[in-house]
Endolytic murein transglycosylase (Devosia honganensis), 378 residues
Amino acid sequence: MNDRRNRRRRRSGNGLIDILNGLLTLLVIGLVVVGGSLFYLASQYYGTGPTTEDRVFRVESGNTLSTTAGRLEEQGFITNAFIFSQFGSRVEESPIVKAGDFSIPAGASMSEILRELTQGNPIRYAITIPEGWTVWQAIQRINADDRLTGEIGQLPPEGSILPGSYDYTPGDTRQSVLDKMQLAMTQALAEVWEGRQPDLPLASPAELLILASIVEKETGVASERPQIAAVFVNRLHQSMRLQSDPTIIYGITLGQSTLDRGIRRSEIEERTPYNTYQIDGLPPTPIANPGIESLRAVAHPDSHDYLYFVARGATPREGHVFAETYAEHQQNVARYREIAAEAAAQAEADAEAARRALEAEEAAEASGEATEAGESTP
């Protein structure tokens, strides 16, 4: 009887041990499977990627991590979208991808790609509008950028764009870029007008913008802008006509082409809304898009009594000479004409010398060819 009880106890004990052994075996197997899976996932996630050359990947605005993973796999940047999105979202600090174009180096791992898309900086794309460009020129440049979408069919008001460099993301609309440029001008003009010098002969921000556009077109020397602005302010105070050549040119081209020649006497004498030799005060609109420094120059012009200026030399970078009286100005004009004539004569002499050198070279080559032909004749 006791032996039977002991055998039952031993069988019961052995069964419990078997169960524990089975559970332990399953646990070990589970750990091996989990560990193996984690090792596989990690090796796939952190291992070298399939790309063999540096490439650019674009994240469209509004793309989620899952959408981005699918596109990365489709384009051959990664081998498994599920691992990229699910494993990556658990091990990286910020799984939110940025919009833009990203430079992905050859062999980049999923980890490196995700960090670049979430923490890196997109490739910078920008449109630059130089100071003094017209809106027609600016819109030509915006419409020519094939990374932008949509078209700008109608020209915005002249002077409504603040020159500068404007970042954008590929796929942005051209109108959105133009909106940034116009908002920047609106804000800059309001700020400059608010802080302007008192007693300026300007009734509104619009008039300041018009005069700044004339200053912008009159000089390419930044340090001269306050001097040039003061000349025009002095003239307005004395009810003198501005007599600015760039306004004549704008009246001819309306900012949609370049004149590429000198102004004719008939054009100086022709009365147009923009010819400040023929009209009093300011033209009806700006003649270009002035930069912030020209706006500030008009808001804070130099203090002097100059009423006239003329180019100092044959090139714009030489700046201008200024005069208080018309007689002094005439002397400056005469000196400029002498300099211009000398420069033109020198340019013609240089061109003639170049032509003669080319002719001599061609004659020498022809003579050499003739000699070679004579030597080869039996």
Observations:
- The mean pLDDT is 86.
- Residues 309-372 form one domain.
- The chain has three domains: 55-119, 135-306, 309-372.
